[in-house]
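User: I'm putting together notes for a lab meeting next week and I want to include a structural view of one of the chains we've been expressing. I don't have a solved structure, so I'd like a prediction I can at least talk through. The sequence is below, exactly as it appears in our construct file.
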Amino acid sequence: MAMLEFDNVEVFYGKVQALRGLSLKVEEGEIVALLGNNGAGKTTTLSTASALMNPQSGTVTFNGADISKGKPWDVVAAGLIHVPEGRRIFSTLSVHENLLLGGYLVKDRGLIQKRLKHVYELLPLLDERKAQQGGTLSGGEQQMLAIGRALIAGPKMLMLDEPSMGLAPLIVAQVMRVISDIRDEGTTVLLVEQNARAALKVTDRAYVIEEGATTLEGNAKDMIADPRIIDAYLGA
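Assistant: Thanks for the context. Below is the predicted structure for the 236-residue chain, given as structure tokens.
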């Protein structure tokens, strides 16, 4: 049984269809990438998994439970955590306060402190800047903060929407290493990325989404050598 599964999912924005019979699976312990151009349906896929949108047809299951008509807070409580595009940190709050908000649904204060300690060990830059306002951080630091905040919630699966957007290549590499480290510690990852080259270096498998449907899927090592992927996303 897959940890996350979309089965023939259709989603509409009013009369505009965003997902067209989308089917995909993410197995426990994987990093899976969703590749595609702007408007392909990648962000809608994550929003549907997070129950920010409900499909008109088809089913979305997480750890065997149907979450197609669920509520976002129930999805978070189940351990499916979404880091949205654009980081969405609270710019006037400190780094430490931003992290604490990730534990909003966690009742055990001791567990929050344990997770905070782990995040500061995994991302020592945040420890150095814990009293600094989030809005004063660089783009890469804000992305690390958004990931750290998500980890405080205790994700079984982490969904990341364009974590490399607007970042310099060296910072992109650092973000991807952190994502790989998170998986190595036991968290499954679903990664939406336009930077296909960076994504395929750290993922196990990938799907290509075009016009709301998956058109290609396969092992990341095979896909990075696939002429169709090279032509569309990697260049010569």
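A couple of points you could mention at the meeting. The longest strand covers residues 16-26. The chain has ten helices and ten strands.

User: Perfect, that's what I needed.
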